[in-house]
Amino acid sequence: MDNNNWSSRTRAVAAGRPDGPGEPMNVPIVPASTFGAGGDRAYSRQDGTPTWEALEEAIGALEGGHATAFASGIATLAAVVDILPVGARVVVPTFSYAGNRGLLAHAHKIGRLVVTELAPDDVDAWVAATADADLLWLESPTNPTLHLMDIAAISAGAAGRPHRPKVVVDNTFATPLGQQPLSMGADIVVHSATKLIGGHSDLLLGLTIASDKGIADELRDSRTRGGATPGALEAWLALRGLRTLHVRLAEQSKTAAWLAPRLAEHPAVTEVRYPGEGIMIAFELAGAEEADKVCGALRLVRSATSLGGVESLVERRAGLSGDAHVPAGLIRFSVGLEDPDDLLEDLYQALG
Q: Is 24 exposed, middle or buried, given 0-12, 13-18 or 19+ CB atoms closer than 10 A?
């Protein structure tokens, strides 16, 4: 049903949807582990289900590659690690999702990988690292500091090396409506669909999209071996969330862009980080004590660890062990669909 002339907004609504005579308008939830002998499927772990495949078709159409659904966002990194040889050299941003850095740090500790961290905004260092890296793991914007990385420059640097290191981009914050890293030269895109794609804080699911079918097949084989398969309900919910991503993203981003300068005006706020679009804001207070007090004083905005849902959430990331190096007073703010004036009033009363 996909059409190359359709916009990303249209693909988010139409791709992966049944279109034959008498077909349902939405792909059904298929909660089956096994299938009758003699058909195209035998067992869901190895052969997939129609529900997974509809989601994969839709996200693949948006990102321009071959998609595979996983049980969680972190499972996508585990699959990428699984297809690397022992001793592979991996580069990761110093400021990036703590769960990913924790998994890579463990792989480094046991001798599975050699992991190096670089400042996310040091483009020259990243391009230089392509000389001996096997894989470069990028986030843009980064979690939680909202640094922007030059995906195109780093990908071009990798493409110019004889051994052609792989470039992976975590596109969770930007979403495929904000950027398509495969078109910038990346090899693999990953998403925590738990976040903006699902959009309602009610599922765990990860996605990989590869530019090359061979890489996609390796990732799918890793899913089969490791059993990191998504649930039928979760895949259906993620697909349903994808259908409204463009309207949620537009409205939440509009609110975030309105709130960011108003937060910067408050005397208790020492810095506001907002990349100019998207739903995420990072703002800093004088220190950990002040940030914790604000998180505890909010009444409408909730303090919780996730992001990308319809509800606004905050978290002081340095309070987590994996993010102890993040500025102590930094609060990550995921802007939801509430009325902007109500959000600002709540933030200001908590800031005092």
A: exposed
